[in-house]
Amino acid sequence: MKEFNSIPSWNENKPEQITVAQTVDAIQNVSKNIREHAWRIRETMKTLRQTGTITEIAMAIRESSFAIRDTVRDINETTKELQKNGIVNDTANAVENTLENAEQSVTTVKQITSDIKSATPHTSKVVKNGINVISQETSQVTEKLVIGIKNKVGKR
After folding, report:
1. Tens-digit pLDDT profile for residues 61-71
2. Contact 82, 88 (CB under 8 A)
3. What does pTM read for this prediction?
4. Quick one: which of 23, 30, 31 has its CA closest to 7?
5. pLDDT tens, position by position, 85-121
6. For the CA atoms of 36, 41, 44, 48, what is the dihedral angle to 10 degrees?
7. How distant, in Å, are the alpha carbons of 11, 13, 84 from that of 19?
8. Which of 23, 53, 117, 146 is positioned for an S-S bond with 48, CB 3.0–4.6 A?
């Protein structure tokens, strides 16, 4: 048989030349595979139909669609009730009020912090002076006590 060389791009990338006979064999193999797979599909469908599997799947899909429909209906009714009773608005208002109060608290804390910073230098000086006065007075009292104790112990 004659070689198939009319398509240059096939000839450039193939190390071997494919003959017409080989091409015919390949096409016959593909046709055989298609027939075999078609037969398997028919047999599978026949088995599925006879065993009731297709009916089971259809019933499961039907039940699932009913469940989804009922769930969506319940969600719709619930959201309408929430809206009607004002729960969504009340919740949104409560969240907004909470945020406003939190902002006010932050502002107050910032003001307190600022006040403490400005008062701290004066307070620190007063506390240091107080500690120094107490320390001096304690030293004087301690000295007097020691002298008094020595006098009493020495007289005995």
Report:
1. 999 999 999 99
2. yes
3. 0.39
4. 23
5. 888 788 888 888 888 888 888 888 888 877 777 777 7
6. -170
7. 12, 15, 80
8. 53
